[in-house]
Design a protein that fits this description.
The chain has one domain: Cytochrome P450 (Cytochrome p450). It has 20 helices and 13 strands. The strands form four sheets. It has a six-stranded mixed sheet with strand order 1-2-3-9-6-4, sandwiched between helices. Helix 9 runs antiparallel to helix 14. The protein binds protoporphyrin IX containing FE. The site of protoporphyrin IX containing FE has 23 residues, from helix 14 and helix 20.
Length: about 450
Amino acid sequence: MVKIATKSIPTARLDGRFADLRAFRADPPTQLRKYKKKFGDTFHLDLIFQKAMVTSNPEVIRHVLQTNNKNYIKDLAYRKLKMALGNGLLMNEGESWMAQRRLAQPAFYKKRLEGLFDTMVETTGRFVSNFEQHRGSKTSINITSEMNIVTSDVALDTLLGGNRYGDNIDIQQTISRSQKYIVRRIRYPWATPMAYINGKHRQFKNDLQRFDKVVYDIINKYREEKTGGENHLLSMLFEARDEDTGEQMSDQQLRDELITIYVAGHETSANALSWTWYLLTQHPEIYERLKDEVRSTLGNRRPTLADLRAMPFARQVMEESMRLYPPAWVMGREALNDDEALGYPIPKNGIVIVSISNLHRDERYWENPNQFDPDRFAPERTKERHRGVYMPFGLGPRMCIGNNFALMEIQLIIMMMVQGFDFELDTEHLVVPEALITLRPKHGIKVFVK
Ligand code: HEM
């Protein structure tokens, strides 16, 4: 039985003020921070086409994402992703999601992931050798594009092992084009009919078909030949059986999970890395400390799993970077039934936007919240921190399944890049955050490589 909620919620109203609306669309995290300052950690946002409750209150967040998570499904913006991701873990709901999560979870156990470490080192090593061409160049390079290349390669190699080679379709380009199309559909819903007229929708459908063909060919080939070794996620998902029923995933479900893992896994990590370089190149003393740790531990040799644990500062840098620039900066939910959280009413079909970016910079929990200070994540200070105020990977049962994968991958890439190169920020290049499903630098971040 839901109690009658009494607390009123202030409204940040954008209707009628197109300048506000434009500012909001241009840089949502900054605008949300301004509203929080004005209205507190929980407020309604009236976006003309949509009204939502935005919250960065840890108790309300816990209620929505964890305690009463069964009352919530992913919101409309997320649901648009279904066009490409189908019923993969990110989009699935209810019993079907639970069964899939149970099936996929073992592939992401720490021990199983450790089996992917050598592939990650191999792939990153190849990337680093290729990256050598940029050293000493007078022209700055877009490190964001580069980070997307390496994380896409790591995702494909660990997902498919040797199975992806020999296919002459560029998976990355096809998916990236589809992603852009979906993002436009979310951002400019009124332009959807145009996409049907100007051929963009047909192009999207064709891309998906091409992609599906490649994936189904890979699945069939794997079924027949069991190629590519066993140390990749495809084989783990392929062999996964439900504990109770003994059932395996259908081909359609395998396809949906593969594309979901690829999409959910590579751009988020690339953004985390990209923001890390941005922060490091602006904080020379922290950058020096990191270099010292990496270079004194590794010298010129390739990293091992044990090295990850032997470099606590590298981990702190990565955690602090995801505090300031959380790649998944909001999580949207829709209520199935009337609810209340901490006295705030949440009506049936009401939208709740969990603002991770506001939570991560809340001065009640973080001293000098806008300052880059990796020492906040030193073990003794982590122990003192208020619970539930840091969640780059979300919270509750829908929490990121790939969090350990991401932490291992990001730390490894930082280590191998710092081991070989020095970076200097190209300050002529304007860095503009762009926030839709993920938070990324709109035109990338540019650096000189030494
Ligand atoms: C820095 C990197 C990453 C960040 C910040 C991140 C963040 C998140 C967050 C916040 C969620 C929860 C979304 C919600 O509750 O609405 C999520 C879900 C998910 N992530 Fe990640 N992620 C990262 C990397 C990865 C990687 C590397 C993979 C796969 C290898 C992955 C696969 C997934 C999947 C499949 C889900 C859906 C889980 C479910 O609902 O059962 N993510 N991620």
